[in-house]
Amino acid sequence: MPLDIESLRADTPGCEKVVHLNNAGASLMPEPVLEAVIEHLRLEATIGGYEAKSAAIDRIEGARASVGRLVGADPLDVMLTESDTASWAKAFWGLGLAGYLDKGGRVLVDRIAYGSHYLSLLQARERFGIEIEVVASTEDGSIDLEDLARRLEDRPLLITATHVATHRGLINPVAAVGRLAAAAKVPFFLDACQSAGQLPLDVGEIGCAVATGTGRKFLRGPRGTGWLFVAPEWSEQMVPIGVDATSGDWLSAEEWEPRERATRFEVFESSFASRIGLGTAVDYALAIGIEEISERIKSLSERLREQLTAMGASVHDGGVERCGIVSFTVPGFEARTVMERLAQAGINVVASDATFNRIDLPGRGLEAIVRASPHAFNTEAEIDLLVDELAAL
Ligand SMILES: Cc1ncc(COP(=O)(O)O)c(C=O)c1O
Q1: pLDDT of residue 2
Q2: Looking at the domain covering 33-287, what would its CATH class be?
Q3: Which portions of the chain are predicted below pLDDT 70?
Q4: What is the pLDDT of residues 41-77, one digit of tens each?
Q5: Is 159 exposed, middle or buried (0-12, 13-18, 19+ CB in 10 A)?
Q6: What's the pLDDT score for residue 280?
Q7: Residue 195: CB within 6 Å of ligand 1?
Q8: Given the CA of residue 216, which atom of ligand 1 is nearest to it?
Q9: pLDDT tens, residue by residue, 9-22
């Protein structure tokens, strides 16, 4: 069924104010998400924060179950956090505290890895002496599966790979990565931060040990929300960092034990309004249909790529299959200037530089790119407007 774009826009108050093509940064929340967040804040203000939590416990717990449905996981293997980076760090340092990194060893990482994940690897190199190995890319920029297979032969500690990068629209073949990792019995950390909400995601099919994402991007949840999936065979080995009374049980003056599976990453204090907002956003996306959203985003993005190329801009996404991140440069203009000029015309995009990835962008001789990222509620006319504004430059 084709999507009803008018009704998606009617649900999205921000559509009246801006041409929002920065959904890979943070999307516009739809009205039901906004209402759910505000409703819970009002309840806290009216009856008390603890009492509001008890009253809304089904919706709060339901948010975890919704993320479970989105990624094909049991809710016990899902935890809500405040960001993708927080999720990834909980799992990675959870292995570190369990002694998994103590003897050093090799960690494989893809060229399009996100900065905050890579920073943890650099920290772990200083602390544990791990070696960081960057897996090669094929000519189109995707992870090179042959190179990965070779590197997996010597049993590295783990492989971490990105479904969709922050700075280019190619889709990595993560199910194939998962099959290779499973055959080599190496845990696979999947960064699904830019894919959740715009591409179908099934952690069982992909075979990852860990998957992480954020709420504010293509899922259209509130800022300050994230999610973490950990397969039970791995969560049971991880030791939660910063344990509190909901992630562990204090058994006696001398003893404690972590809670079961991913619930060991729970925290007592959190923005429950935001968690409810995230759950509502996931339910909203699932009700529309991830496949349908995905098709629409891909079609708008391809339209943009074609028009950019036709007007003389360079598109840098690569990839065999591409999604809703369109990275480009305009000859003679710095990325930041393009962003600012479009902002003056009421069009939101971002300029992304090497601070987010110091391997892939410099490796291709790029200092910075402009990133436009449409969502299903955007229109063809908005895409055309962006290109017209660029042509006017
Ligand atoms: C691919 C990718 N991974 C991870 C992150 C980090 O997400 P967060 O800011 O929620 O920690 C981002 C943020 O832009 C991203 O694009």
Answers
A1: 79
A2: alpha beta
A3: none
A4: 999 999 999 999 999 999 999 999 999 999 999 999 9
A5: buried
A6: 98
A7: no
A8: 10
A9: 999 999 999 999 99
Say if CB 7 and CB 287 are below 8 A apart: no
User: 208: which 2 tokens?
Assistant: 């990852």
Q: Whose C-alpha lies nearest to ligand 1, atom 8?
A: 84
Measure 194 CA to ligand 1 centroid, in angstroms: 7
**Does 81 contact ligand 1 (Cβ within 6 A)?**
no
Length of the chain: 393
Q: Which two tokens stand for residue 389?
A: 């504004």
Which residue out of 109, 114, 171, 210 has the highest number of ligand 1 atoms within 8 Å of its CB and is therefore the one to mutate?
114
Query: Angle at which helices 145-152 and 174-184 pack, to 10 degrees?
Result: 20
The domain locations on the chain are 5-28+291-392, 33-287
Ligand 1 binding pocket includes 214 (Cβ within 6 Å): yes
Best residue among 85, 109, 143 to mutate for probing ligand 1's pocket (most ligand atoms within 8 Å of CB) is 85
For tokens 């893809």, name the residue.
Answer: 110
Cα–Cα distances (Å) from 308 to 93, 329, 384, in that order, read 42, 9, 10
The correct CATH number of 5-28+291-392 out of 3.10.20.740, 2.60.120.10, 2.102.10.10, 3.90.1150.10 is: 3.90.1150.10
Return d(Cα 319, Cα 322) in angstroms, integer: 6
Query: Which pLDDT score is estimated for 97?
Result: 96
Which ligand 1 atom is the nearest neighbour of the CA of 164? 1
Distance of alpha carbon 272 from the chain centroid: 20
Q: Is the CB of 116 under 6 A from ligand 1?
A: yes
Cβ contact 161:188 at 8 Å: yes
